[in-house]
């Protein structure tokens, strides 16, 4: 997987600076070495968020991933138990 150049906090800072200074998207992209498509994707994802919200979002995504892995493991255990019970009777 490609390494990300910017962290979410940096992205939010770039977007807020672009809004405050009223710069055009092309100018902001040129300053930070990103494409306009990347800028608009960031804007769609992170617009209106503060840095604390981004950190909380990342934490929630990690927790959600962990819970999904636990659920998948539990489902496998249940399926294995059902298979064992079917063979015994």
Describe this structure in words.
The chain has helices spanning 8-21, 25-32, 36-46, 51-88. With 89 residues, the chain is mainly α. It has two domains: 1-49; 51-89. The longest helix has 38 residues, at 51-88. It is elongated. 6% of the residues are buried.
Features:
89 residues, mainly alpha, 2 domains, 4 helices
SSE pattern, N- to C-terminal: HHHH
Based on DSSP secondary structure assignment, what is the total number of beta strands? 0
Distance between the termini: 48 Å
The largest sheet, given as strand count, sense and whether it forms a barrel, is: none
Instruction: Tell me the strand percentage band.
Output: under 5%
Secondary structure tally, helices: 4
What is the radius of gyration?
22 Å
Number of domains: 2
The backbone outline, from C-alpha atoms, is: elongated
The low-pLDDT segments are none
Structural class: mainly alpha
- Oligomeric assembly: single chain
Mean pLDDT: 90
Helical fraction equals over 70%
């Amino acid at each position: 997987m490609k390494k990300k150049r910017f962290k979410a906090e940096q992205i939010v800072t770039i977007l807020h600076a672009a809004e405050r200074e009223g710069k055009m998207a092309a100018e902001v992209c040129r300053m930070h070495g990103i494409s306009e498509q990347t800028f608009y994707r960031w804007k769609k994802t992170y617009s209106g968020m503060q840095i604390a919200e981004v950190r909380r979002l990342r934490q929630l995504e990690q927790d959600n991933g962990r819970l999904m892995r636990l659920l998948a493991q539990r489902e496998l255990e249940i399926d294995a138990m059902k298979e064992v019970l079917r063979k015994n009777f």
